[in-house]
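User: Could you go from structure to sequence for me? I need the amino acid at each position, not a summary. Structure tokens:
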């Protein structure tokens, strides 16, 4: 089942960004992930508080793949650099609709 990672990032320094961008994309691909969005072009329609500078959305083939990426020894130094150089919210989301009344495969 698909899994998604949503990362909201507001850099507090930029020193980590070149190495992160150069390396992390191939690590995402290694674990079967693909970027759906990496952008500073977003608009908050509801809510309060600070708006992150960048949102990243990654689709994974499974929860295991998402977690394997996050814990990959090749990713850990980049993860630590991002965490040290940005205010970040990192969330994994299972690709299900817990509130769907009818199964998606139901005949019309």
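Assistant: Here is the amino acid at each position, in order:
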């Amino acid at each position: 089942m698909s899994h998604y990672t949503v990362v909201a990032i507001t850099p507090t320094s930029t020193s980590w960004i070149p190495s992160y961008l150069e390396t992390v994309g191939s690590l995402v691909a290694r674990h079967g992930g693909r970027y759906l969005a990496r952008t500073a072009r977003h608009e908050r329609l509801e809510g309060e508080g600070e708006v992150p500078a960048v949102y990243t959305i990654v689709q994974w083939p499974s929860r295991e793949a998402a977690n394997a990426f996050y814990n990959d020894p090749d990713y850990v130094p980049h993860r630590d650099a991002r965490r040290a150089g940005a205010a970040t919210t990192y969330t994994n989301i299972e690709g299900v609709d817990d509130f769907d009344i009818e199964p998606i495969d139901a005949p019309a």
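One structural detail worth keeping in mind: The chain has a mean pLDDT of 93.
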